Amino acid sequence: MREATEQFDTLVLGLGKTGLSCVSYLVDKHERVGVADSGQAPPELQNLKNRYPLVPVFSGEFDEALLRRAKRLALSPGISPAHPAIQTALDEGIEITGDVEIFCQDADAPLIAVTGSNGKSTVVSLLADMLRRSGKRVGLGGNIGAPALDLLAQPAPDYYLLELSSFQLETLSSHRPVASAVLNVSADHMDRYAGLQDYAKTKERIYAGGGTMVINLDDERVRDMRQAGRRVITYSLTRPEADFATRDHAGERWLVNGQSRLIKQSGLNIHGSHNLSNVLACLALGRSVNLPMATMLEAVRSFTGLPHRCEWVAERNGVNWFNDSKGTNVGATLAALNGLSENKKNIHLIAGGDGKGADFSALKNVLSANVKSVILIGRSANEIAGVVTDKETIFYATTMQSAVEAAMMTAAPGDIVLLSPACASFDMFKDYADRGNTFKHCVAAGPPPGAYPKVEE
C-alpha cells in the first residue's frame, strides 16, 4: 500500500468501470485524483496504470486517515455509504458523491431517468429506440452500457437516458429529469438495506428532482410514491383508468391509451405479461416527452427483447426454453413465472445461486400454482427448497449441464423450461451473462442418453 501523503480534490472509492470513468473525467478537469479499492487486484487496475500512471492507488481496507486527505469521496455503486470509514468522513464534513451525481451537475441536455427492481434495462433499451426513430440523439448509459460520465465525452445529445440502480441513487441529489419512473419494487439487495421499506425509499429518490412522474399503478409501493401537484402519467395491466393500460377486444388483448387501441399483444415480439408492463412504461415515458405514437409503436413492433431477460432460446420436442438469467431477485422470477405461465401448471424452473439475503417465501404460492418441477443449483438451493410445497418436485444439480439434463428428462410437450434463478450468479459463474450463455449452450447440446435420475439432497 502506498503511503497516504497526497491531498486530493477527489478520492475515488472502487476501481471497476465506474471508478475508472470517474478518474478519467476528473483528471480531464485537472483535479487531483486518487483511488482506493478494498481489493488487492481491482478489475480496472491495469487500465488505470496504462492510462493514468501518475494517479495513486491504495489497496486494502479503507483507511480513515487516507479518506480525510480528500475534499470529497466519489463512491462506486458497489461501495455503501454506510461503511464505517465513509460515515466517519461524512461526519467530519467530507463530501460524499457518486458518478451519476457528478454527471448531473455537469450535463447540459434533458434527462430521462429509470429505475426499478426489474425491467429497467428492457425499458431504457426500447425507449432509446423510440427516441432515435423519432429523430432524437440519445446518450444511453448509467447502469447499462457506458458509465454516465463517459457520456459527457461526446457532444450533448437531445436526451440523456439513464438506467439507475438503487446504489447509484444513494448519492444522487442534483438530478432534474424531464421524466422519471420507478418501474416496480421487490426485495433485492437485502444484504445492503435495512429492509424493503428502506430499499423502496432509495428507489423513490429518482422522483425528487421534479419532472413528469411515470407511475406503475400495479405496484402498491410505487403507487404510493405519487406526489401532489406533479404531472403524472400512469400505466397498468389491471386498472383500466390508467393512461396506458390493456383491454380485451374481439378475443384479443390490446395495449390501449384511454379509449384508443394501440397494438395487439400478439403483435409484440417479446413474451410475458411483465414485458407488456415494460412496453406500457415505455409508451408512458415517450408520451412524457411528446414522441409520436406511430413512431413509438413502430419501435414496439420490432423490439425482440434483450439477452438473458425472458429470452426465448429454443423449442425442443414441444418444450419451449427461456433464459431469464438476469432474474437475480425474487421479484424478477415472480414476474417471469406469472408472465409465462398463463395460469397453467406447466413450468419447470431452474433456480438458485447467491440469494443475497433474500426472503424466498414470496415464491411459495406461484411455485405451487404454476410450476411442475424445481431444479435447484447453487448456494441458496436449500433456502428455495424450503418454500416448495411438493418436495417430490425438487431436483438438485451441481452444474448447469446437469440442471438442463434434469429438465430435459422431466418436461413434456406443451411445457416450459425457465431459467430464472432469483439469485445472483457469482457463486458459480462470472456473471449473469455467463450463467445465461452456459444455459443456452447446454440446451443446444441436447439431451443425454437415457433418463436423468433424481438426485437426493
Which short descriptors sum up this protein?
457 residues, alpha/beta, Rossmann fold, Protein-Tyrosine Phosphatase, Chain A, 6-stranded mixed β-sheet, 20 strands
Structure in words:
With 457 residues, this protein is an alpha/beta fold. It folds into 3 domains: 8-98, Rossmann fold (3-Layer(aba) Sandwich), CATH 3.40.50.720; 107-302, UDP-N-acetylmuramoyl-L-alanine:D-glutamate ligase, CATH 3.40.1190.10; 311-445, Protein-Tyrosine Phosphatase, Chain A (Alpha-Beta Complex). It is built from 17 helices and 20 strands. The protein has helices at residues 17-28, 45-51, 64-67, 84-91, 99-106, 120-133, 148-151, 166-169, 196-204, 220-223, 273-288, 293-302, 330-341, 364-370, 381-385, 400-410, 432-445, and strands spanning 8-13, 33-37, 57-59, 70-75, 95-98, 111-115, 138-142, 159-163, 179-182, 212-216, 232-235, 244-249, 252-257, 260-264, 311-316, 319-323, 347-351, 371-376, 394-396, 416-419. A 6-stranded parallel sheet has the order 7-8-6-9-10-11. A 6-stranded mixed sheet has the order 15-16-20-17-18-19, sandwiched between helices. The radius of gyration is 23 Å and the shape is globular. The relative contact order is 0.09.
Offer a concise description of the structure.
The chain has helices at 17-28, 45-51, 64-67, 84-91, 99-106, 120-133, 148-151, 166-169, 196-204, 220-223, 273-288, 293-302, 330-341, 364-370, 381-385, 400-410, 432-445, and strands spanning 8-13, 33-37, 57-59, 70-75, 95-98, 111-115, 138-142, 159-163, 179-182, 212-216, 232-235, 244-249, 252-257, 260-264, 311-316, 319-323, 347-351, 371-376, 394-396, 416-419. The chain has 457 residues and is an alpha/beta fold.
